[in-house]
């Protein structure tokens, strides 16, 4: 079998060495993986974005006409800008039974452990295929995975289960919230600050909209809470993350921008909050702005919509992963993943991977070596599961 072989830690170090921050290309990593799998006799299908600078990768080991197991992970990582790292974020440091580096927890370790097992999968007579599904731009709205999900059925039979390896400390997660995020721009009218009555203050109206969103968040908390769901918090949350506007103290602000999101409980109407926000814009805020000048306006751009993962008790994915992880119960998480996108397309999906979400996105991100070993055991059980008798 040609090609360099890697153990799990070596593969983690290799993948972390690629700077795949979402704002840059991931092709160097994807090309490495494609070459690595090619040396094992495994063909990779690349699904690029419109620019051609980023790509998903989908590869199959084993028969293509049998429902298989998808091992899914995103290749991009969040920025390290402004974070106080004690070492180079893209060079793994092994210390105190931990591996430090950007992406060690979220979530290159899962991908690396799966790829380190690829030679074993490739050299075995599989009755059930194993698929590798690597995506781009998860961290900026799960933008890449849908392009791959649309084409999966062209490459092989519809999968029996999809395992998304986000960090859960190898617990089995069968539900998470959805994420809907937006960018709103308020276009006002500039005037000298002594003539506020002749201007339209974009910041003031932006603040009014932010206050409205806060009211919606309080309503979700007080009137639509589901303590039995297991979520923390057990309701849809509404959040404003950034706000910018104005040029000088003595100028009525021309523009104001703010980013906002809601994290939706599974099963709730994904469009309700967005529609209520727009109705408030159209019926309350815009008329006041237009009373001064009709050239003013408010635009809202959808940045991302990531569906939640709804529990499917007893689904093939849940049953399989509970058995492989040697768990008796499932859990829920508040953060979003690509699992909901796979599920929405009719693929049974669960989230299960090494590492802790508590380490994600932080300086000196790390994964414990005990988590790596636990995931290796999981993968070897999977190998036993998919082997031909």
Q: Whole-number average pLDDT?
A: 96
Number of strands: 15
Give me the strand/helix succession: HHEEEEEHHEHHEEEHEEHEHEHEEH
How many separate domains? 2
- Unreliable runs: none
CATH topology description of the largest domain: Aminopeptidase
The CATH superfamily of the largest domain turns out to be: Zn peptidases
The shape is elongated
Residue fraction in strands = 15-25%
Q: How many helices does DSSP assign?
A: 11
Q: In what order do the strands lie side by side in the largest sheet? A: 1-2-6-3-7-14
Our measurement of the CA-to-CA distance between the termini, rounded to an integer number of angstroms, reads 23 Å
Radius of gyration: 23 Å
Main sheet specs: 6 strands, mixed
> Can you name the CATH architecture of the largest domain?
3-Layer(aba) Sandwich
Helical amount: 25-40%
Task: Characterise the protein shown here.
With 389 residues, this protein is α/β, with parallel strands linked by helices. The protein has two domains: 8-175 and 308-386, Aminopeptidase, CATH 3.40.630.10; 178-305, Alpha-Beta Plaits (2-Layer Sandwich). The protein has helices spanning 8-16, 27-38, 108-116, 118-122, 145-149, 152-155, 202-223, 272-290, 316-325, 339-344, 369-386, and strands at residues 44-48, 55-61, 69-74, 93-95, 98-100, 130-135, 161-164, 173-176, 178-187, 237-245, 255-264, 297-306, 331-333, 349-351, 366-368. Strands 1-2-6-3-7-14 form a six-stranded mixed β-sheet. A four-stranded antiparallel β-sheet has the order 10-11-9-12, with helices on one face. A three-stranded antiparallel β-sheet has the order 4-5-15.
């Amino acid at each position: 079998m040609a090609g360099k072989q890697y153990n799990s830690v070596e593969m983690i170090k290799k993948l972390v060495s690629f700077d795949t921050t979402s704002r840059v290309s991931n092709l160097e990593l994807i090309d490495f993986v494609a070459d690595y799998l090619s040396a094992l006799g495994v063909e990779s299908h690349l699904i690029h974005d419109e620019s051609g600078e980023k790509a998903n990768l989908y590869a199959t080991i084993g028969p293509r006409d049998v429902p298989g197991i998808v091992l899914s992970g995103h290749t991009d990582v969040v920025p390290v800008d402004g974070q106080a790292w004690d070492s180079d974020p893209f060079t793994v440091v092994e210390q105190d039974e931990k591996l430090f580096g950007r992406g060690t927890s979220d979530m290159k370790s899962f991908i690396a452990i799966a790829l380190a097992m690829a030679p074993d999968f490739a050299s075995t007579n599989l009755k059930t295929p194993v698929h590798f599904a690597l995506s781009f731009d998860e961290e900026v709205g799960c933008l890449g995975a849908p392009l791959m999900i649309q084409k999966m059925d062209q490459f092989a039979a519809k999968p029996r289960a999809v395992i998304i390896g986000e960090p859960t400390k190898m617990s089995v997660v069968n539900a998470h919230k959805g994420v809907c995020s937006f960018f709103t721009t308020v276009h006002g009218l500039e005037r000298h600050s002594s003539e506020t009555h002749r201007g339209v203050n974009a910041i003031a109206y932006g603040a009014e909209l932010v206050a409205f969103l806060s009211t919606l968040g309080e309503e979700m908390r007080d009137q639509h809470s589901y303590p039995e769901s297991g979520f923390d918090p057990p309701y849809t949350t509404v959040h404003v993350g950034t706000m910018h506007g104005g040029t000088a103290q003595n100028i009525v602000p021309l523009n104001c921008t703010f980013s906002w999101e809601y994290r939706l409980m599974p099963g709730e109407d994904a469009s309700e909050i967005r529609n209520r926000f727009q109705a408030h814009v159209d019926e309350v805020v815009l008329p006041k702005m237009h009373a001064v000048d009709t050239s003013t306006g408010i635009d809202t751009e959808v940045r991302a919509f990531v569906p939640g993962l709804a529990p499917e008790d007893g689904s093939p994915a849940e049953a399989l992963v509970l058995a492989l992880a040697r768990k008796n119960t499932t859990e829920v998480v508040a953060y979003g993943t690509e699992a909901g996108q796979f599920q929405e397309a009719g693929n049974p999906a669960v989230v299960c991977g090494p590492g802790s979400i508590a380490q994600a996105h932080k300086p000196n991100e790390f994964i414990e070596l005990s988590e790596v070993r636990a995931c290796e055991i999981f993968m070897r059980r999977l190998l036993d599961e998919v082997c031909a008798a």
